Amino acid sequence: MKSGKQSSQPEKGSSRILSLTILFIAFCGFSFYLGGIFCSERHKIEVKDVTRTTTTKAVASPKEPTVSPIQVKSVSFPECGSEFQDYTPCTDPKRWKKYGTHRLSFLERHCPAVYEKSECLIPPPDGYKPPIRWPKSREQCWYRNVPYDWINKQKSNQHWLQKEGDKFHFPGGGTMFPRGVSHYVDLMQDLIPGMKDGTVRTAIDTGCGVASWGGDLLDRGILSLSLAPRDNHEAQVQFALERGIPAILGIISTQRLPFPSNAFDMAHCSRCLIPWTEFGGIYLLEIHRIVRPGGFWILSGPPVNYNRRWRGWNTTMEDQKSDYNKLQTLLTSMCFKKYAQKDDIAVWQKLSDKSCYDKIAKNMEAYPPKCDDSIEPDSAWYTPLRPCVVGPTSKVKNSGLGSIPKWPERLNVAPERIGDVHGGSASGLKHDDGKWKNRVKHYKKILPGLGTDKIRNVMDMNTVYGGFAAALIEDPVWVMNVVSSYSANSLPVVFDRGLIGTYHDWCEAFSTYPRTYDLLHLDSLFTLESHRCEMKYVLLEMDRILRPSGYVIFRESSYFMDAITTLAKGMRWSCRREETEYAVKSEKILVCQKKLWFSSNQAS
């Protein structure tokens, strides 16, 4: 370099580096190629292997994997003491002292905690007999089945009932209908022509006595639900159900009744002693909520006809006149209008005109005010009474009386409110009705007593649209349609079809007396509710409300059948399994019958 000559070493070095680089790239490329081939072939082998394994399995066992049925240990439930014979867990008189007396709230539902629940079988009264069959039961029942003399002694001059030998007879008398309930209802029909032509179909009777009003309406095509609280002496609801007349325990106090808004076509109070004008008329507001637009509220007794009747009411004419004026003012403020009156019967009609409710909404000083949109009108399970007027919405514009079809057409017409149920539609209702017609036809084959006078009081424990009840509409039964308080709100659809029902949570006891239903039906109840409600307690509650010799139809997943059968045996039920109408393997039918037994401490 010093001599100024260029060296040849860099050229040779560069050439060598370039050659190595090309060789390295070529080697990497070849390796990548080989790796691709190897991976591709490996993938092919695995796929072939999986395919072969799957094919082999399919040939060996074409059935889908199954889950083993749930199993429970055998159990034999003990007998309850004789003091439990009329036990109503959520309205137990022994617990009343724990709760306040304000507005008689102690008579509302107060259910025992899980650790307080009884795990025993309730015995019938000594001398109990299978109930007299319908329709004779409307006129008489066995005294030993409902051994209460209080009404007979206190109301003997009003002919509510009369004890003759070993029976109670129901002559159809009442405080406000001394000439008999049929004459009383005839007068009512003269005031409300819609009671004659199918316009009025559903009714509620608050403070029902022995339910003679509801019993008479059945022959006139009107289905009435009698409502009264649990009491120590009168046993009003127990008498009603023993007669085969729809009834449920309940009271208008601090909570809403377990019915949706705009449910009943008519509400009735015959001297029911509810203080309608007290507490700002909050009891009337609840009547307003559950009566559909265009529906009626009927009041007979104080303060109606005060100018002639006041002497018999242990009060003054001035006081009765004042009460009547208060009542009329409150009803007007709630968008009721006076419809008709004759003698002791007064009728108001709930307005369906939106303008009345708009006036309330615009008047900031109006009382009662219009409910705001945050208050759900159908929320009715342990929901406090609201001191406001539930106004009509666009959802119920065609659900008012006069807008819905007359009975019996309305049974088969899809109500507007079916659109509020998730997935609900007119075609869905039609399909559901067809399904239940097939099912009930099959039920009558495996339970021949269904559809005869052997079965009168029926409960569908988890209905959707009332399809089971609709399929039985020509039979001598009535059906209590129960919609779970945790399921989709389909109860408005049930009422719009001209059927009756209630909200309920089967983790708790039902609002009725023991031995009040001939048939309980449940469709996949445990599939839907077993994650919340313990099966044992649901079955014990079913045993409580089921009459001796009564039946249960379980339509349930095969997964639960063994457990149900085991527990039913522990309750002294006899059961047999049946196939469904289409012999579906995943679903079975279990028909059980409760045996008539007497306490070991009683004479049988």
From TrEMBL:
- List this protein's GO terms for biological process: methylation
| GO MF, one example | methyltransferase activity
Q: How does it sit in the membrane?
A: Single-pass membrane protein; Single-pass type II membrane protein
Q: Where are the transmembrane segments?
A: 20-38
The EC number(s) attached to this protein equal 2.1.1.-
Q: What class of enzyme is it?
A: transferase
Which Pfam families does this entry report, sorted A to Z?
Answer: Methyltransf_29
> Where does it mainly reside?
membrane
Q: Where in the cell is it found?
A: Endomembrane system; Membrane
Q: Which PANTHER family match?
A: METHYLTRANSFERASE PMT20-RELATED (PTHR10108:SF1109), SAM-DEPENDENT METHYLTRANSFERASE (PTHR10108)
- Assigned protein family: Belongs to the methyltransferase superfamily.
Q: What is this protein called?
A: Methyltransferase
